[in-house]
Design goal:
Number of helices: 23
Oligomer: single chain
Strand order of the largest sheet: 1-2-3
Strand content: 5-15%
Shape: elongated
Helix content: 40-55%
RNA sequence: GGGCCGUUAGCUCAGCUGGCAGAGCAGCAGACUCUUAAUCUGCGGGUCGAAGGUUCGAUCCCUUCACGGCUCACCA
């Protein structure tokens, strides 16, 4: 008898295994050691919503989520902040956006002041933010959002901007350490959006040493003097902005992509610049990019369709999306697959689940590791008892047998408990989507309708098919093996090759030469679906 | 030019803080009169990129080199 109940988390993290086995726990331990004991650990993530937020960006979010989970499991309090850098400049029109002309006229404006050309949201930035915000809770991610545009526009960072100006020589020096061309002597660590055009095509002329700054709009030639305490268009450039926020939020952990993490990259300069703001650089690690397999190959294909979280959730259950990321070390590249690999991923996940619940025996080391991956993959806590498992391949068949009617599929499953239905329904939807969108042609079928003209078959094959009728009428009396034998018997007594009969049967059932393993397939479909299809050959 | 990552079975990779080299797939053999990359059983398969060093012991740590990928030095 298998133990299919949830193990105690303390068993997994007990003294016996006080060495953490999972990367998230190792990083969490490092954060605690590096930053010292604190009441609350601040974990930060952030991106610029300058286009559809794709699955590559999601890696950053989920990495932080996994670390916050690990910190919490280590008994710590955590604040997970997510910064929408929506006061960044609109620099390039992505391929998948409508009304490119209008968007092009908005280049150099902050993305929060660019319209949503699809007409759904208040502005362009919001159009990219909101769909993701709506989806994140589904995968168990619930950060505290910070909208940088909103902050900058109400002069929230006036004090910090002044600090940057006061230390502009120091900041310039830090940045110059890694620049091929040094910044000019009169460089100012601010950029200004013109109040005449909203664009950042401006030149800062002077700073009065306190709160006033004067700039010229390059497009209109007009000059204006602003008060930092009330101005809405002044912001820090990225390499000053990022460390400023580390200091302001007292960030303990923030990962970054490899573009930021190279030597001379923005993390490198920021960990110097942050001193100016009286802070220290957070603990960090670098995560690698992710690739796409079985769908274009690039996250953002040239046709303009982007692989985003919604696109991945079409195919993968939320806990399996988490599993993909939790099961891969952040600094290694991996591919999100839409091809046959999908089946393998589901099978791997199910194996991981069985290991967690003790329904599959493995070595102690592997058990500890898989169990932790399983826990981190769950949107909430793992269920008390093991969820209903159904092999994904079989499910794909069931869905096609029932013409995509998921409620029928669920009804056909014996011993399905009420509390298991929600997850299973989700798996059904994903399987149906996969079959429809990505499965190879060989994999797809649909049962013929009795109303259609029955395929022409003749000779011994027809005789054999006819002789199967009594068997199908009594289908419930046969188990799979017996049915299989009956099929061979039918072929033999009619004097045809079993192969021919198989071929004929698939023609009758699904109008193809091949299909799912026949005996099992017929049993699964049941007498009611099969009999009418064979009736014409009586 | 700097940095980071990688190089392990035919393929894809695991091997996380040094202790007899692993998995899946492919291959081979056998079984099922069989079919969604069919299923089951068994088997073979490796100079752990190269050369040094540390160690009782190195795929693992250090140094150098080769090849491959990414990234920074503009902006964000």
């Amino acid at each position: 008898m298998h133990i299919t109940r949830r193990p105690d988390i303390l068993t997994i993290m007990s003294k016996k295994h006080d060495q953490p086995v999972h990367w998230a726990d190792i990083h969490a331990q490092n954060i605690i050691r590096r930053r010292g004991e604190k009441d609350v650990y601040v974990c930060a993530s952030g991106i610029t919503p300058s286009g559809t937020v794709h699955i590559g960006n999601f890696r950053e979010i989920i990495s932080v989520e996994l670390i916050t989970r690990a910190l919490k499991d280590a008994g710590k309090s955590v604040r997970f902040i997510y910064s929408w850098d929506d006061y960044d400049v609109f620099r390039k029109v992505p391929k998948n956006m409508p009304d490119r002309k209008l968007l092009e006229s908005c280049l150099r404006k902050p993305i929060t002041l660019v319209p949503d050309t699809a007409g759904t949201y208040e502005n362009y930035a919001r159009a990219n933010e909101k769909p993701l915000e709506d989806l994140l809770p589904e995968v168990g991610v619930n950060p505290e959002y910070i909208y940088q545009a909103e902050r900058y526009r109400r002069s929230f960072y006036a004090r910090q901007i002044r600090t940057a100006l006061e230390h502009r020589d120091q900041i310039r020096e830090y940045l110059n350490e890694h620049r091929s061309e040094p910044l000019p002597e009169d460089w100012m660590p601010v950029s200004v959006f013109s109040s005449f055009t909203d664009k950042d095509t401006t030149e800062v002329l002077s700073w009065d040493g306190a709160w006033e700054i004067t700039y010229r709009c390059l497009e209109t030639g007009q000059q204006e003097t602003l008060d930092l305490g009330t101005a809405s268009g002044v912001k820090l450039p990225w390499r000053a902005d990022w460390p400023m926020r580390w200091a302001y939020e007292e960030v303990d952990f923030e990962p970054a992509g490899k573009d930021h993490h190279s030597q001379g990259g923005s993390f490198d300069t920021s960990k110097r610049v942050v001193e100016v703001f009286g802070g220290t650089a957070p603990y960090s690690f670098q995560y690698d990019f992710i690739r796409i397999k079985g769908r274009g190959g690039k996250i953002s294909s040239s046709s303009g369709d982007v692989v985003d979280l919604a696109g991945v959730l079409e195919i993968y259950q939320p806990e399996i999306v988490r599993y993909l990321f939790a099961g891969t070390k952040p600094n290694s590249e991996f591919a999100v697959s839409f091809d046959l690999d999908v089946l393998k991923i589901y099978e791997d996940y199910d194996t991981c689940e069985r290991i967690y619940y003790g329904a599959q025996e493995v070595g102690e080391k592997r058990r500890a590791k898989e169990s932790r991956i399983y826990e981190l993959s769950q949107v909430d806590r793992p269920a008390q008892e093991m969820p209903y498992q159904i092999p994904i391949r079989h499910l794909c068949n069931l869905i096609q047998i029932h013409s995509g009617d998921i409620e029928q599929v669920m009804a056909s499953l014996p011993a399905l408990r009420e509390d298991q239905k929600e997850k299973l329904r989700r798996r059904c939807i994903c399987a149906a989507n996969w079959v429809r969108l990505y499965a190879p042609e060989d994999f797809r079928f649909s049962l013929r309708s009795p109303a259609e003209t029955a395929p022409e078959i003749s000779g011994p094959v027809r005789t054999a098919a006819a002789s199967l009728l009594p068997v199908i009428e009594q289908l419930d009396a046969y188990d799979e093996k017996q049915l299989s034998e009956a099929i061979y018997e039918a072929a033999h007594s009619a004097g045809c090759e079993p192969k021919e009969l198989f071929l004929g049967c698939y023609q009758v059932l699904i109008g193809k030469d091949r299909g799912p393993r026949l005996a099992n397939f017929i049993k699964t479909c049941g007498r009611e679906k099969i009999l009418p299809l064979f009736e014409p050959y009586r």
